[in-house]
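Researcher: Please translate sequence to C-alpha cells.
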Amino acid sequence: MKHHGFTILETIIVLVLTALIVTFSFPSLSRSKQVVTEREFWNDFRQEWQAAQVRSKTRHIETAVTFDSSSYQIEFTWLEHYQPVKKRLTVPETLLVRKFDDFKMHENGYTKPRTQELQSSINGKTYLMRIQLAWGGYRIETR
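Model: Translation complete:
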C-alpha cells in the first residue's frame, strides 16, 4: 500500500526551504522599495520646483526653499492671500543631507546659484544639486 502524504521530515524540509527563500529575498525587496522611495522624492522635488517657477512667472510670488533638520523635510513656502502655504517633502532615510543652504526663488524667478549636496546610502553616490541663475532651474550631478 502506497503512502501519499508527506512525512514529518519532508514537511520540515519544505518549511525550512520556504523560510530560507523568504529570508534571503526580503533584503532585496526592501532595497527595491528604498530605490523607489528615493526616485519618488526626486520626482516630487522637481514638481515642487516647477510649481514655484510657475508661481513666480505668472503670479510674481516668492517661494522660500528651506531644509528642516529636525523633521528631515525640505519645505517650499509661499504666500497665498497673505497666508503662508507650505509644501513639505520628507527626505528619505536613505538620503543624507550633507549640505542644504536655504534660498529663495524670488518673484521675478531669480535664484542665486548654489550647490546642495545629498548622499545615498543605497549606492553610496553623492548627488550635487546645481542651482543655476534665474529661470535655469537646477540639474543633478552624481559622483
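Researcher: Any highlights?
Model: The two ends are 69 Å apart (CA to CA).
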